[in-house]
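Narrative summary of target 7.
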Amino acid sequence: MGSIDADKKLQVLLVGSGGIGTMVAYALEKGGKAEVAAVLRSNFEAVFDNGFTIHSVDHGEIKDWQPTSILDSIPSVDKESWRAPYDYVIVTTKNVPDIPPSIPDLIAPAITPGHTAIVLIQNGLNIERPFLSAFPTNPILSGITFMGAIESPPGSINHHNHDRSFIGVFDNPTANKEQKACAVAAARRLVDAYSACGPNVDCTYEPNVPYSRWRKLLYNASYNGVAAILGMDTSRMRFTEHIVDELIRPLMREIRATAKAVAGVELEEELIESMITADRYDKFFKPSMLQDVEKGRFIEFENLVGEPLREAERVGVETPTLKVVYGLLKGLQFKARERHLREVVVPRSGEGLRYGCHGKS
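Modeled conformation, tokenized:
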């Protein structure tokens, strides 16, 4: 990463200013050590006219707030020569690699090779791989947050769960010693800017990115996917008991076994029980994948369920529950693809299809 003047504010481009992204932008701006340009999509008009209204468990009530600038598209640092290079591009969008265009393609115009650090505040396993390939000279940073924040309606943010965030460095096997040191420095600099917003926000440097990502997968590969399939919040799952005993706990045990076999990551057995009751029961919490299904959106299941499954198959770990959940989620994604993508058309005739012929009794 190129050198940054310590007396100047960090120049940050935020891609994905929904609930989580907006709270990240607010924390950085409030700390006074960064200027954020936020790329907005469906909420651009509402925020342009009235700013964000934020109800925050950490920051209180905020009205008519905007970051330093709001944009309706990804800027090009080459075409806009007057624009200073971005020190960080922070990505907080949903991660749906099976739906084009890819995020690396989207953000490429804003990246200065060898300078811009790319921060993926996204869930899932192996999410860094396409970025390492597309931007081999740039630091690729991991962001994991346990914050709860929802945008509804556009421009209105309900930040209901405290911001606990962890920033670390994805391993880049092709990076030299100097590049790896620069990536660590970039991660620590961002932690410093984020933490400057005040004591209510807990942002720390994460030296063990594989552990933190597999740990969060215990929840996301189980509760997130099962909630989407069943259309059920986590409190109702826990109330039934059998959903936890026959689906959630087995899924978590399969993730634990896979983490150890694939990455040598030892997830403590007691983590499973703490994850099962991680959500406050009285909140009747709907995981993000369920919220996306209810809104008819694409779901981010490939890196949450598909990648752990493929890694397990690669090393010979049996994950029967994960495999069934993955198949069901692929079905939900197909329904969304058929609804949103014109190229997905189910033919009226089954001729030529593997399962299209009418069987003889």
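The chain has twelve helices and twelve strands.
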